[in-house]
Amino acid sequence: RFTVFSNSATVGQSLLNIRYKNSLIPGQKYRPMSRPQKFWFVLLTVGEKWLRERSHSLFLNHPAESNARKARKVLSILTGLTKVASLVNFLLFLQRGTYPTLTERLLGVQPVFSRPQGPRDINFQFLNRELLWNGFAEFLIFLLPLINMWKLKASVAALFSPLNELRGTEGSEETYCTECAVCGEWPTMPHSVGCNHVFCYYCLKSHTIADICFTCPKCGTETGMIEPVRLHELHQS
């Protein structure tokens, strides 16, 4: 009542600005579906599916020689013929581009736009922006593995850290021995690379593995022989 019978369009077609046209009447002017077409359209689309799904339960309790069983066999034959006809109609639709379903071809109705389609101005700004960012992301994915992040981090730390090549005062020496030059925490398993600064073993080993040219981020001393720092040296300092 509120779909095909009212405006010759289903609910989905109404959302897409589409409705059925009676193509049996020639002419360019729009002709709505006639009442017989609407009736047979509902019967073939809804009634046929309901009868096919309910046929098994409707004819189940009848004897094998009854008319109901014969009607079920006839219905099965008609269902097979309908599938073959639907396949032929689909091939014709691919060739000619009209009547996508068998019901529409039998009734002579075609889906058309409810309002004429005007020229559309396609804006590619969003597409261009997406392509730009996707290309930039792919470039970063290719570039980042080639960058030694450990070395870059150490270089930045050395750039912003004050370089103090003098031996400094007593207070500075105490800082050198009680603070890791990389993480800034109390050195765990303290080791040295030949300068006055102390490193955690994990910090020093991970940096030297990542960068063979690792230098001290505090004074810029190149990595020499990695040696552990004795505990009594820390207590004396």
Concise account of the structure shown:
Pfam families: Pex2_Pex12. The chain is mainly α.
Task: Write up what this structure looks like.
With 237 residues, the chain is mostly helical. The protein has two domains: 4-113, no CATH class; 149-236, 2-Layer Sandwich (Herpes Virus-1). 53% of the residues lie in helices and 6% in strands. The strands form two sheets. It has a two-stranded antiparallel ribbon. It is elongated and about 105 Å long. The termini are far apart. The model is unreliable at 163-171 (pLDDT under 50).
The count of domains is 2
- SS-derived structural category: mainly alpha
What is the 3D shape?
Answer: elongated
User: What is the terminal-to-terminal distance?
Assistant: 95 Å
Nearest-integer average pLDDT = 76
What is the helix tally?
10
Radius of gyration: 41 Å
SS elements, strand count = 4
| Percent strand | 5-15%
Instruction: Note poorly predicted spans.
Output: 163-171
Question: Major sheet: order of its strands?
Answer: 1-2
Along the chain, the helix and strand elements come as: HHEHHHEHHHEHEH
Helix proportion of residues, in percent? 40-55%
Biggest sheet, open or closed, and with what strands and sense?
Answer: 2 strands, antiparallel
Main location: membrane
Keywords: Membrane, Metal-binding, Peroxisome, Protein transport, Transferase, Transmembrane, Transmembrane helix, Transport, Ubl conjugation pathway, Zinc, Zinc-finger
InterPro entries: PEX2/10 (IPR025654), Pex_N (IPR006845), RING-HC_PEX2 (IPR045859), Znf_RING (IPR001841), Znf_RING/FYVE/PHD (IPR013083), Znf_RING_CS (IPR017907)
Protein name: Peroxisome biogenesis factor 2
